[in-house]
Amino acid sequence: MSKITTELLLERAVPRSTRLRKIETLNLSKLQLKTGDLDPRLFSRLRHLQKLDLSDNLLDKFPNSLTLPDLRVLNCNNNKLEDVTALKQFPLLEELTYENNVYLTLNDDYKVMFLLQNLRLLNGKDITKLADHVRRVNSHKLTSKVTAHWEKFFRDQLPEKYTAEQVKSIKKEFLQSVQTNVVYGPSSLSEFTRWRVKMIAEEFLAYSLGLELNTDPEPEEKMGENEEESTESPREAAEDASQVTVRPSKRKRNNSKPGSGNKRSKSQANTEEETEDVSAEPLHFLQCHSKGNSREDFKTQLWSCVFEPLLDCGARKDPIVSSSRTVATCGGESVCLIDCETGTVLKKYKVATEEFFSVAWTTLTMVISDSRKKSHNILAAAGRRGIVKLIHVASDFCYGEIKAHKKPIATVCFSPTQETHLFTASYDKRIALWDIGIPDCDYNFKASQLLVLEALSIPLRIALVPTCPDQYLLAGCEGGCFAWNIKLDKDKKSRPFEALFQFPDEDGGVTTSHRVDGLAFLNDDVVVSKSSKPGCINLWSWSRSFDMKAKGCQRTVAAVILAELEWSTTDLSYLTLSTCPAKAYVFCGDENGSVWMYHLSNYTTAWSSPKGKRSEKRIPPTQILKWPELRANGEQLTEILINNVVSDPTFTYLVVLTSVNITAIWKKS
């Protein structure tokens, strides 16, 4: 029988507690504990544990799935630890001590510095600068050496057409060779160097040769009659994710200049000097939204992704200074959290009867205990059932739901100024504004509807006006582009649209009746939308199109067009666009698996002038990232639509969602 029981945990809590969920500090020192005494099922209930003392015990390692999502401080002094790599399951760890573990060496110090991105103190010493060097400089040097070793000794050994046995053989030989021959740093760190070299080499093979992961999907967990939700641990989520085979001959460079493989217009042909190479390289191709975890599922559509905001702490207050590399994606029955750098599926949340269409983040200031306040990221997910799920990601816990609409929800977004205000746009031709409330320490919360915006057709995309996000909302709908006044000091809780925008049509006239399936702001004034005219994306001025002082509802106004972006001539809908305002980029995928990228910093200054002239010629893409030749089960994946493309605020990572259940992650060099 285990030495650790619920009663013991409650008794050893500091201060003593009556519920496991409320424990934040726990002292389990001097109990003669062995590894087998740490029961993951019991520890998974310690959702808010931040400080754990396991010193003076007999631990030789950590179980891989303790699930302590909020752990910040860990003391393992005076044990018998032989390995530290399992500590990566505590990504928020800031302070770690493991002195007097005789089997641990300097190599283990370097391993935890690499694995734990938030670690500041190791055995009482500030390791911030050294850890940054290990994660960046050391990793960059080793990656260069591993790549060079492959190029020099192994690339030509792999034939154009190869068998699984050939791949297995060359993988084994390469891993052995690279660990033996790649040397960097002092000999005292040789074990750490071999460990990192192996890791880098395996990652290199995974995306350069497309070696499939040797994991079989686990069966679905059985749930009770009334249960429909499940949250998977990072390990389970990772095992559900598959990587897809990529042929190396097509992977030397998966980007192209404008016009590569596409018909070129005159404007495009004459603007070669404006092109640039952003040097984005593919990192990962993941299959993590499969229905029933099936590796044969290449039909689930992926729709929405959004990067997790960084919690306010020090320099992280400005997301442009230090943006998150964690992204939430949704499609089919699941929502996934992915580490873009490693390709690890950190968490996976499922609802068996749902099809998720949209996700959005907010940061709530919650009272955790003793009247202390703390910021926590909350993820809202919604889809076909018209229900919004509210997920406290750090605790792996869906704490509530809002039955927002009786028809599917197409998209959701939070207000940038009111942390609890959530907009939901539904197939019932309504956009609702909700106050989701702030949950207490037991996750009790109260949601209320504040406003309903009546649309003439289904709203597909919504965007709050950056200069007045509490006053105006834009929506791209099946029947046009509309604006609403959303100011809450008005009496009416149900409102018609205030303006309908006119756009040029393909016949040289103007139109208001068209499907707008892409909508975003490039900066405080420039709106990017599609599609009133085939083959192009419109850029237009909010301030010059809409007079906020004008009176009257349901008026028609002409969108003041600043420029048109050259895009695919496809007639397929719902291939949406996104922007990276900090870098002045627009992204949009097409029907051939390509990502069109437009760098517009040279234009935005001219457009910001009150008399700024329209760009007469269509602006060609700065670059087109071509989809590589992917193979699944030996067969090539075809007919790949890019449903969505999103970058983080600094444009370090680009996440591409497809119609074939593949999430592609690119990284800007």
From TrEMBL:
Residues 279-668 form the Leucine-rich repeat and WD repeat-containing protein 1 WD domain. GO terms for biological process: chromatin organization; DNA replication; establishment of protein localization to chromatin. GO terms for molecular function: chromatin binding. GO terms for cellular component: centrosome; chromosome, telomeric region; kinetochore; nuclear origin of replication recognition complex. InterPro entries: Leu-rich_rpt, LRR_dom_sf, LRR_LRWD1_dom, LRWD1, WD40/YVTN_repeat-like_dom_sf, WD40_repeat_CS, WD40_repeat_dom_sf, WD40_rpt. The keyword Hydrolase does not apply. Keywords: Centromere, Chromatin regulator, Chromosome, Cytoplasm, Cytoskeleton, DNA replication, Kinetochore, Leucine-rich repeat, Nucleus, Repeat, Telomere, WD repeat. Its main location: nucleus. Residues 7-200 form the Leucine-rich repeat and WD repeat-containing protein 1 LRR domain. SMART domains: WD40. SUPFAM superfamilies: L domain-like (SSF52058), WD40 repeat-like (SSF50978). Residues 215-280 are annotated as: Disordered. Transmembrane segments: none annotated. This is Leucine-rich repeat and WD repeat-containing protein 1. It comes from Eurystomus gularis.
